[in-house]
Amino acid sequence: MAAVTAAARRIHGPGPAESEWQGSGWFERLDCAPAQTWLARVVRLVVVSPHPDDETLGCGGLMAEATRMGIPVHVVSVTDGEACYADDPAWPATRARHVRRAELDGALSALGVDVSGLVRLDLGDGRVRDREAELEARLAVHLQREDTVLTTWRFDGHPDHEACGRAVRRVAAAIGAHHVEYPVWAWHWIDPAHGDARLRGASGLVLSPGARAAKCRALDAFVSQRARDRGEPILTPRILARFERGIEVLLP
């Protein structure tokens, strides 16, 4: 996740508590299946992440499950999340880029993903929408027809997330790959009591205890997002609770 810009006006305040989601009728009616069952037909899993940590937040458990099943997992990191604390002089872009790259490496290792296959596009944190055509062109080089490609939801509320959702959707359609999206910021602004019509067709993947534990270890790797010397960190305990659950949600 990256710092939220003015363009993402829906993302403000503390957002719903995880208890509100767990008690929502929408969540209770979610069609769920074991993650291992969903992965049974996957040949290669490719996760396109706008910023370091989005891949772990949205589908880290699924990635861990896939590696345990021997399915190749590849990650494309679109930006380095270097603008995460753009208003803090203690976090210039050069420092943030270095720290977040190292954190991503640690998180992927915790999930069992081979870091040597990580692709970093460095398109600029907060500027993905302006370089959407370039993103499509570069993704086309790395994606294959037999891939199952996961990326952030095209209505997630953050411009970088939405741009990735649109770009991946177009590239996947062009080559015939299976494309699926995962929400990250949507948990912050959607009303749990009523859900959102655009969530229709969502499915929940139940993680095994081992995959869930691996995801929690991977989340621990993002120290810069969980703690901050001054000011509130991006991943507060309230936000993290939404991603420590034993179910991950995917959208068609």
TrEMBL record:
GO molecular function: hydrolase activity, acting on carbon-nitrogen (but not peptide) bonds, in linear amides
A Pfam family annotated for this UniProt entry: PIG-L
Region of interest (Disordered), residue spans: 1-21
Name of the protein this chain belongs to: PIG-L family deacetylase
Lineage: Bacteria, Pseudomonadati, Pseudomonadota, Gammaproteobacteria, Lysobacterales
